[in-house]
Write a structure and sequence with these properties.
Layout lengths: L3 H14 L6 H4 L5 H17 L4 E7 L3 H7 L5 E6 L8 E2 L8 E10 L10 H5 L2 E11 L10 H6 L4 E6 L15 E6 L2 E7 L7 H13 L10 E3 L7 E2 L5 E5 L5 E6 L1
Parallel strand pairs: 1-9, 3-12
Antiparallel strand pairs: 1-2, 4-5, 4-9, 4-10, 5-6, 7-8, 7-11, 11-12
Helix pairs in contact: 1-3
Magnesium ion binds next to β4 and β5.
C-alpha cells in the first residue's frame, strides 16, 4: 500500500501533467477521513513551499445540486492559495484536465473566528465583505469520479477562482434570496439561489468552522472562504464562455481559451 506521501506526489503529478489518475480508494479503500485531509494539507504545504501562499478556504458539496452531480453527500473543505485566484477572466483549457465552472459567493474576514455550532450573527460579526465568485474545479481523477475520501485528498477539486471586483457589505441583501442564472455560451443552463447553499450561504461558514474546530483551527483575519456552488458545475472546453448573472448584484464571466 502506498504512503500518504506517495498520494501527495501522484496528485501533484496529475495536476502538473494534466493527466487524470485512478482514484485513491480503488487501491486503498480503507483511506480514512484524517488521512485524506492529511494528503490535502501536505499537498498544499508542498505548493506553498513552491512559492505560493495560503489565502483561505473553500467549502464543497454544500448544495444538493452538487451532491447529486458528483454522488457524494457530505460537505467538505479545501484550501486556497494565491495562485488559484485569477487576475483576469480567462482560463486555458489545456492547463487543466477536464475543467468545470460553478457560481458561488465568497466571504472575507476582518476578525479571527473559531468554534463549533456558532450562530449566524456570531459569524457575521467577523465577516468583512461578501463577493460574487466563479470557481473552476478540475478533479485530478479519471472521469471526474470519486468518493468522499478521494475528493478530500484532492483538495476538493480546486484549481482556480474568480472574485467579483465589487465588495458587498454583509447587510446589502438577504444572501439566501440572491438568484443566479448560469449561461453556457449565452444559453441559460442552470438557475440557483443563495438558499441552495445549506439554506443560507453563512451556514457554509458555520459548517467550515465545525470541520476546522475538530482540528483546533479557525478562520484568521484576511482569509477568504468560498461558500460552495449554487448550481451544478458546467463542463467547459476551449472556445466556451460561462457567465453567472446575479441580477442587480452584477455578473461574472470566464472565457475558456
Ligand atoms: C467537488 C468540489 C465541490 C462545490 O462548490 O460544491 C465544490 C467537485 O464537485 O468536484 O467545489
Ligand atoms: Mg465550488
Amino acid at each position: 500500500m502506498s504512503t500518504i506521501y506517495e498520494y501527495v506526489e501522484r496528485i501533484a503529478t496529475a495536476q502538473s501533467e494534466k493527466k487524470a489518475i485512478e482514484k485513491i480508494t480503488i487501491s486503498n479503500p480503507a483511506l480514512t477521513f484524517e488521512e485524506a485531509y492529511e494528503i490535502q494539507r501536505l499537498s498544499i504545504e508542498k505548493s506553498i513551499s513552491a512559492s505560493n501562499s495560503f489565502i483561505g478556504w473553500k467549502m464543497g458539496l454544500t448544495s444538493k445540486a452538487k451532491q447529486l452531480q458528483v454522488g457524494v453527500d457530505s460537505t467538505i473543505y479545501g484550501r486556497l492559495t494565491n495562485n488559484m485566484l485569477m487576475n483576469h477572466n480567462e482560463i486555458t483549457a489545456a492547463d487543466h484536465i477536464h475543467p468545470r465552472i460553478e457560481p458561488e459567493v465568497a466571504f472575507t474576514f476582518k476578525k479571527p473566528i473559531a468554534g463549533e455550532n456558532l450562530m449566524p450573527y456570531e459569524v457575521w460579526s467577523a465577516v468583512e465583505y461578501v463577493y460574487l465568485a466563479l470557481e473552476v474545479i478540475d478533479s485530478r481523477y479519471e472521469n471526474f469520479s470519486f468518493s468522499l475520501m478521494d475528493v478530500i485528498a484532492d483538495n476538493a477539486s480546486s484549481t482556480k477562482f474568480l472574485l467579483g471586483s465589487q465588495p458587498y457589505a454583509p447587510t446589502t441583501t438577504d444572501w439566501a434570496q440572491i438568484k443566479v442564472n448560469v449561461y453556457y455560451n449565452n444559453e441559460l443552463k442552470y438557475e440557483g439561489t443563495g438558499a441552495a447553499i445549506l439554506e443560507h450561504p453563512i451556514n457554509s461558514v458555520i459548517e467550515l468552522l465545525n470541520l476546522l474546530s475538530k482540528e483546533g483551527r479557525g478562520i484568521q483575519p484576511g482569509e477568504l472562504v468560498l461558500a460552495g456552488a449554487m448550481t451544478d458545475a458546467v463542463a467547459v472546453k476551449s472556445g466556451d464562455t460561462v457567465t453567472a448573472d446575479y441580477g442587480v448584484l452584477g455578473s461574472l464571466t470566464i472565457n475558456v481559451k
